[in-house]
Amino acid sequence: MAILGVVATGALVLLYSRQQTQIRIATTTQGMAKSLELTFEGLLDTTNIALQASTDEIGRQLASGKVDAGSITRFLERQNDRLPYLGSLRASNERGDLIYGRGVRNPTVSVADRDYFIRLRDDPNAGLYVGSVVTGHTDRILVWPIARRISKPDGSFGGVIVTTFHIAEINAMLAQITLDRGGSIELRGPDMAMITRITANDRSVVKLWDHRLSAPAQEAMQANPREGTYVSDSRFADHVTRIYSYRRSPKYRFIVFVGNSLDDAFTEWRRQAWIVGALVSAFVLVTLAFCALILRAWRRQEQTLGAIRSSELSLNEAQQIARLGSYVYDLQTRQWTRSETLERIFGIDRDYPRDMESWLDLVGTQSRAQVQAHVRRLVEQHRPFDFECRIRRPCDGTERWVHCTGRLRLDEHGNASAIVGTYQDITERKAAEETINQLAFFDQLTGLPNRTLLLDRMRQAMAATSRGNHFGAVLLIDLDRFKVLNDTYGHEVGDLLLSEVARRLTACLRAGDTVARSVAGDTAARLGGDEFVVLLPDLGDDRQAAGAHARTVSEKILAVLGQGYQLAQIEFVGTASIGVTLFQGQQAALEDLLKQADLAMYRAKADGRNGVLFFEATMEEAALRRASLEGDLRRGLDEGRFLVHYQAQVTAEGHVIGAEVLARWQHPQKGIVPPAEFIPIAEESGLILPLGAWVLDTACMQLARWSRQPEMAALTLAVNVSARQFHHADFVDQVVAALRKSGADPARLKLELTESLLVNDVEETIARMNVLRAAGVGFSLDDFGTGYSSLTYLKRLPLDQLKIDRSFVHDVLANPHDAAIAKIIVALGQSLGLDVIAEGVETPAQRQFLAECRCDVYQGYLFSHPLPPEAFERLARQGCDVLRTAPAIQGAAQPA
Ligand code: C2E
Ligand code: CA
Ligand code: CA
Which atom number of ligand 1 is nearest to the Cα of residue 896? Predict the structure, then answer.
């Protein structure tokens, strides 16, 4: 108490004397700021009067209409002589050129860019302008400009009059004032820009144009813009802590800051404070020394207790963070001790029976036996255990994953005294692992195993078949028409189909009773896109039976996938094609197995979809042959091994009116390869694009040549265009370019399109056809009747001709159904205003029948085989004898 009393009195004395010192300094700085404000106001008053007198004089001369520059300059000089502290008075015209006053020059200096000029020009009522410090236009020294507006007699702007204070002179004036050590004076313009700043130590200008104000200054000025006092450490200048007083001139808006160093002022106070402090401290120290001795002993003891408590706490916290609960099981007393975190993991409280065995609920029948085995090994062999298992929390029945450890505690004699261990809650880690697993091995859309997992299961299945000598099968399932669905209705609908297919596949494999022999390892997986795989790992050891079973499963799948789909608003009927390959052991490589199934699937697709095909070695050969043909085809194109043949198109009377252009390939070894063999390969590989372009160019050049021969000039040429070629972005340009390059008449060119073109984007197809139609090109719908004929589309396509497919023509006489179709096509053509041509006319009887149906034009072996150009030209000149069978002409390609 005594200590406190002494210290408090000391502190109060010091506080009071400190306050007095502060008040004293503030009064001094306030006084000085006030007198400086008055001084500068006085200076500006006189300056204002001088400027006003001058503007009056100039105004007077302007009014009289007789402006005498010399007299104005003299007037200004007289003002200057009266006010020696002012810089030269100069006046400008309304454009800002300084033209009056001492030292005006020719060419004139312009002040049009100066802030004062702009402000005074724009404000007729502006009084005295007090600006910020600038570098003089003429003498390049720092000046503080003061200006007034000159108004013409009509009040309009007539220029400015400007003078300056030289900063050096203001500084010299301020230097007369005696400042305390650490004192400072600042003069700032209306916009806060520094005009000058001097301190007792440094009388030079510090950082001109510095607008920054310390935070306390800003606060004080916000509270009272006119005058005030604050303390600041003058951070932007010299880091001296001062009491500042400021005053803003209400007339001219400049501000004066006067500062006095607190440190200096407090020097005396500090000396007093020292003495008082020393006395008080001495007293306090002695008293404290006694107390300290007593305290020390007590504190030692407290610290030890605290450390124990805190380490216990942090152990608890760490356990909670790690979700690590601990337990001790005393082997002698058979008593359990468990930590709070352990209770939290199991969701139990203190009142639960101590004996954990009575409520510990392990999920899975084997778990309890395993735990008992672990404990036995621990006790008998001293082997610590460590395993993961699932528990069911007795409080709410929820399941958690835990990691359990246990080891023996030995007493001083080396005998086992207890089991100590931990339970850690690893549910979240397990969930994360599960997610990662799901991402890595399962298809995100369908939830089926992905390619990676499938390959792994296949590897296991193959290894198992080689051990067990049984057969397995891989079924590769590809959805027919998936692309059409996707392109027409968008990916969302496509995704819906894929998910539904996955669901049906899974259900199909699970339904063991319907599928003859479903095994636990049967797996459905998604390879990507619309390709799925079913792996049947164990089909028994009889090849025949295994094949039969794989077929049953495949057919079951086809049936299930062939049922209608309701995809959002869309009803879809989808089919699939399945390729199957059997395996036993590791005769084939893993990837080869998929390739085999893929080949078989492709063949199934080519054979008309919605079917199952088993892989055979010949398929591989065919695939190889195809690959080698593709290479040859590429080379053939480079080496110019292609030709075209022309097959005549004739009227009922036998006049040749044109020809179909048919591509031929002269293979260096195989001779002429028929288009049926190379066109599909060209389409698949994209080579159809250069090939088609070449055929088009050749046909156009031929038309151009014929146009110069009167008897050939009327012939038309029909060029086959495949879907891929037609849909290529450049197709329209390509046709137009071929016509332009060759100079052929577009009206003689006809493009043969098939209905397969319409499968993709009908609107786009129609748009393209219309562009070409506008250019004069004609269109024939090839193989009509075999595809996807929709009357709605037919009406909208800008067609000229329908071409009855040769399959109908072939059987018109034998098959009444085909005869009816042929008739309908002719009638349809007529009703739509289209020509009708029949292709593949081989016999006079067929021709006769078609003529009776009123078909216009014919094409077929009856008239002519496809011919090389010269042979065709001969035929065209002489015409066909329609009653005679066409002569077999040398060089014509016979269909394969
Ligand atoms: P396509 O457009 O249906 O062509 C008519 C096919 O029928 C030609 O076969 C022709 O030789 C054959 N043919 C003509 N008259 C008769 C007949 O009386 N009886 C029989 N059975 N067949 C007859 P080719 O020349 O083998 O062409 C086959 C297919 O290859 C063509 O079928 C066409 O789709 C395609 N093709 C031919 N050249 C080209 C081409 O330059 N570009 C495109 N994209 N495809 C072409
Ligand atoms: Ca054709
Ligand atoms: Ca055809």
Answer: 26
Pocket test for ligand 1, best of 679, 697, 865 (most atoms within 8 A of CB): 679
Ranges in the chain, pLDDT < 50: 206, 512-518, 885-896
Tell me, what's the pLDDT at 352?
Answer: 85
Coil, strand or helix at 257: strand
| Burial of 25: CB neighbours in 10 Å, binned 0-12, 13-18, 19+ | buried
E-only strand ranges, 28-141: 90-92, 98-101, 129-130, 134-135
Residues whose Cβ atom is located within 5 A of ion ligand 2: 720, 752, 782
pLDDT score for 896:
33
Ligand approaching nearest to the C-alpha of 718: 2
Ligand 3 center to 887 CA (angstroms): 22
Question: Relative to the alpha carbon of 803, which ligand is closest?
Answer: 3
Sign for the pseudo-dihedral over CA of 587, 589, 590, 594? negative
pTM of the shown model: 0.46
The pLDDT score that the predictor gives to residue 887 is 42
Give one DSSP letter per residue of 222-247, joined into a string: HH-SSEEEEEE--TTTT---EEEEEE
Query: Could you tell me the distance, in angstroms and rounded to a whole number, from the CA of residue 859 to the centre of ligand 3?
Result: 10
Q: Which residue carries 């050891």 as its tokens?
A: 541
Alpha-carbon span 242 to 261, nearest angstrom: 4
Distance 788 CA to ligand 1 centre (A): 20
Atom of ligand 1 nearest to the CA of 719: 41
The CA dihedral of 28, 34, 39, 41, to the nearest 10 degrees, is: 160
* DSSP symbol at 542: -
Q: Decide whether any atom of ligand 1 lies within 6 Å of the 866 Cβ.
A: yes
pLDDT digits (tens, 9 = 90+) for 27-82: 888 998 998 898 888 888 888 888 988 888 888 888 888 888 888 999 898 888 88
Q: What is the pLDDT of residue 892?
A: 39
Helices (H) and strands (E) in the chain, counts: 25, 32
Q: Is 671 exposed, middle or buried (0-12, 13-18, 19+ CB in 10 A)?
A: exposed
Please give the structure tokens belonging to residue 790. Answer: 């929709």
Write down the pLDDT at residue 513. 38
CA 805 / ligand 3 centre spacing (Å): 6
